[in-house]
Amino acid sequence: MSEPKVAIVTLTTALLVAAPMGPRLAAQIVSKLEAGQYTVSDGALPMSAIRFAPTFEWYRPYAKISARGSAFLSDQQLQIADGIVSGTFTSPTVYGVRAEMLGNASRALDDRSLGTDQVDVQTRVHVLFHDYGGLWFGGGVARPWRVAVVSSADVADAGLWTKVGDLTNTFGVATFTTTFTNFSFSKIAALHDTMSAAMSCSSSTPVTNVAGVVSAMPALSVAASTSDACDRQSRFSDLEASVRWEFGPVQLIGQMGHRFGDSYDVTPDSRRWSSASATMWISDRVALIAGGGRQPALPLRGLPARSFGMAGLELAYSPISKSTVPVALPHTVLVRSFETRPGANGMEKIVIRVGGVEGVEVMGDFSDWTPLTLTRRGRDLWELALPLAAGVHSINVRVDGGPWAPPPGLPTIRDGFNGEVGLVVISRDKGGH
Amino acid sequence: MSLVRGLASRLTNIAAHPARCAAAAALALAVAGPTLLRGQEPEPDRLAKLDISSHYAINVLMDSANVEGLPAKALRSKAYEGIAKKADGRQIVAAVRRELIALRVARVQLGDVDDEELMAAADVVQAGGKPAQLSAFKPRIKNRSDLQALTIWASLMARGVPTEDASSAISKLWQDGADDATFQSLWNNVQSDILRGLNPGTAFQNRIREAPAPSRTPPSKGQPPEGQQGVREGSE
Asked: In this structure, what DSSP letter does residue A18 have?
């Protein structure tokens, strides 16, 4: 079996095996598999292919590890297109400020002969204005391999977001995000025969440190072998705006962007782009997805600009919410319902419904007031099985690391610490309420 | 067989790359290490997170509870709750002391009942319920739990329903044989009225009038009070 096939089979198997283990682990595991028809108008991919995109996430309140990839089936050949492994650490919020550290390792295979790799690390500082807006700024370094970039790229970014509406009202909730990202790096430029191209080079010496590139990129190997290439200091910036609108079972995502930079660094087909997608949940675990638009070139990952269209199905054992806000937010009143049901083996199952969030925790006398993470079982469904003894139990719930609050629909009393707790009564002969 | 051979071949292939082996081992250690190490450590006393004087005071209060036959686990839980909610030591000691006092009052009023009932009654005392009114719950009735009634009583007072109104109405409902669903439904209705902006006292008065009048269960018919026969009749 070829390496791409092994990787795809392994990732898919991991999703299927790991998802049912969720309740037994302290951390949260979520996964989804997207499959559908994918059509591109340019680039090295086949014109039309069936796309599989498995995603896997493991996270605790302040740390997250995720793996995702996509593969295409075309002409009876399954080939991996790209894969990325990410780790994120987030600090607790202190006076509305949160720090975030991100690391990514990715591989992209644009066709069967050309593969590129990249490792990047980045830190960000987030300033949150309760749960209706915020901003962030940060910077980091990205190191690509096997592309026409011969240095580490300095990446600086900043962004603003705001949230309008509420999941409980008719029009749902919309999140608007604006980001600005600047990339600065040295790349190999072909000199051709124009003076301006030559002047844009920082060094006119023949490029000698491109062995990895030469083997992977035939066009550059010609330039390098004839000394018609040079190191060039490149810089470009992306300004992007996006909106995510969620109401009922429908999620709409739209984004558009503009790339700033001179003509040597930004190709005309990557100056402007826009795309949109719609997700319609037909059950807690199945959704229809359709979308299309244009993606800009990603020089650091060696991916060309392309237009695409796709329609497919998302099969989610534990679906991941698509968050355009890059840091988990504290939420207060989004929990829609809470109940306990008798579970298997004398356990009680806590069932909470809350949508558009990354994590839900409960704590109470039953856990000696240690937070327990619920497992996502559907788009807005979270569950946890507990051995609750008969009696009255105090309980608090929190969403995305926000403040502890009593669950809705439960009798409450004051907790003696300027807050409230919910009370769950578990009868001896039957489950709770 | 070919699958086994293929797997063996891949493992051999991986073993031939020491860097990959080292990376895989480091990843496995990073993921499994903390869990394995945690399993070897004894459970730390979380009360040790408190300052020395608060820690000492809570230990004294728990010792008192043990000596008096009161559930010290309720005090420990209250202290853990305070720690989890990042309350300061003085606040935690005060909350634990209030819990102990409420448990004592509940014990005096209810006598020798189980810990769960005692703690539910302590919640009522802490919410402002008059101790004497707890005596309505003193008779033991077979197959009937008063946990829901006590919980709703405490919660109504915490929501702002006047203590006297809540106490007399809940006691009467209980004595009339109301079931758990009746208490829960009363709470749901009052809560929704309060959320709509109604004064808690008014909301409660309106809803208690609508509460179904349960058929009284005579103690002599099938469900005799355990060891407290006659108290129910006397209290009515």
From this structure: H
Of the candidates A6, A365, A419, the beta carbon closest to that of B77 is on A365
Please report residues of B whose CB lies closer than 8 A to that of A391. Answer: 115-116, 119-120, 147
Tell me the pLDDT band of B179, cut-offs 50, 70 and 90.
confident
Mean pLDDT for the stretch of residues A390-399 = 91
Q: Would an 8 Å CB–CB cutoff place A430 in contact with chain B?
A: no
In whole angstroms, what is the distance from residue A147 CA to residue A298 CA? Answer: 11
User: Distance between CA atoms of A354 and A397, rounded to whole angstroms?
Assistant: 11
The CATH number of the domain covering residues in A337-426:
2.60.40.10
Q: Are B81 and A369 in contact (CB under 8 A)?
A: yes
Stretch (H or E) spanning B41: none
Residue B219 and residue B153 share a domain? yes
A49 vs A418 pLDDT, higher one: A418
What residues 204-223 of chain B have any CB closer than 8 A to a CB of chain A? none
Three-class SS string for B67-96?
HHCCCHHHHHHHHHHHHHCCCCHHHHHHHH
- Per the model's pLDDT, the better-predicted residue between B154 and A210 turns out to be B154
Q: Sort residue B197 into left (φ over 0), alpha (ψ -120 to 50) or beta.
A: left
Residue A372: pLDDT over 80: yes
Q: Report yes or no: B151 at the A interface, CB cutoff 8 Å.
A: yes
**Domain span at B47:** 40-110
The residues in A 164-193 lying below 8 A from B, measured between CB atoms, are: none
In which band, very low, low, confident or very high, does the pLDDT at B24 lie, cut at 50, 70 and 90? low
Higher pLDDT: A141 or A145? It is A141
For residues A393 and B119, what is the distance between their CA atoms, to the nearest angstrom? 10
B13 vs A: CB within 8 A: no
Homologous superfamily (CATH) of A3-318 is monomeric porin ompg (2.40.160.40)
A75 and B CB contact within 8 Å: no
Spell out the residues 6+ positions from residue A47 whose beta carbon is closer than 8 angstroms to its own: A39, A40, A41
Query: Is the pLDDT assigned to residue A109 strictly greater than 60?
Result: yes
Which tokens in the block code for residue A378? 């559907």
Q: Which residues in chain A are classed under CATH 2.40.160.40?
A: 3-318
A94 touches chain B (CB under 8 A): no
Asked whether residue B171 falls in the same domain as residue B140, the answer is yes
Give me the sheet containing A375-376, strands edge to edge. Answer: A337-342, A348-353, A381-386, A375-376
Query: Are B68 and B140 part of one and the same domain?
Result: no
Structure tokens at A330: 């504290």
Pair B73, B143 in one domain? no
Domain count of the fold of chain B? 2
A31, amino acid identity: S
Q: Which residues of B touch A413 (CB under 8 A)?
A: 123, 126-127, 154-155, 158
As beta bridge partners, residue A141 has A121, A154
Contact A433, A421 (CB under 8 A): no
Residue type, A74: S
- Across B150-154, average pLDDT: 93
